[in-house]
Amino acid sequence: MKKRAAVGMSGGTDSSVAAALLVEQGWEVIGLTAHMWKEGSRCCSLEDVTRAQKVCAALGIRHYVVNAQDRFTERVVTPFVDEYVAGRTPSPCISCNQFIKFGFLLDRAAQLDCDVLATGHYARIEERDGLFHLMRAIDPKKDQTYFLSRLSQRQLAHIAFPLGDWTKEQVKKWSADHNLPIVPRGESQDLCFVEAGKYAEFIEGRAPDVKKKGKVLDEHGNELAEHEGIHRFTVGQRGGTGVAVGQRIYVRNIDADKNEVTLAPRESLMQSECLVTDAHWISGTFPMSGNLTVQPRYGHRGAPAAIEKISDTEFKVVFEEPQFALTPGQAAVVYSGDEVLGGGWIG
After folding, report:
1. Active site residue 43
2. 30-66 as b/e, with b when 16 or more CB fall inside 10 Å?
3. For domain 269-346, which architecture applies?
């Protein structure tokens, strides 16, 4: 019997090529699209359902739509808002992958008797000695393993990443050569469920009390200005602070209890260590010491560091060189070479 694969599809180039490749390889393929958010979303709206349906029709495969709106709100949107209210800067794409794309959608794939759930993510999975290892993609510019760092052995055992050995240029060329009915749209670093440039308004709409005036201070505690809400700031931010003091200054600290934001020169934001909470290890155990790098935010190249276990849920990262703006709420992801070991949230 043919092996059956569900493919999480948005109608975009990556997920469409992933589905087409599996069809070409002889899999029985089913397209799955999760409707996660209302209209205006960049990758999980009804518009994307229509786009995915066209691709599935061209490939001659079945297509199902699953309603994940309640789960998405509970697991992604509400924690996103709560983190900003607490003066932290969340990374909701990591939670979306953990709980929605490879949680909710993976469960639906299993209900359809699928052997694997495939997506268009740029990452690789290797099985060695009975363990599944999450590896960086071949294309370093597109590698998405940072956002997949909270996946488990159970999840990785039933996941496939057909594009892990491909570059983005190869994917785009393959799509064009095979005439897939894809309407191109620009790459975006914005969140799918928040309109570009509207983060503050989005948060205020769900937590109105966060919109209140407070103090903007310098590193010595002197008042520089007044702000309109701590949710408008993130550690490491330079522009948009409403303060000009003749030198470049950045957000160093956000105190939700006092409703205060502290600014300081860049050198004051350099740190050699940080506490990481809610630790998750893909192997299930704390990593052995070795030549590790830690990536404290997406887009960071990763820096050599040691990790020290504090408890089953906490560890300390000690970098060889000080790093700029280790931001509370962001993920610190631990790598050994190209392999993702796991990580947690910067405290």
Report:
1. no
2. bbbbbbbbeeebbbbbebbbebbbbbbeebebebbbb
3. Beta Barrel (2.40)
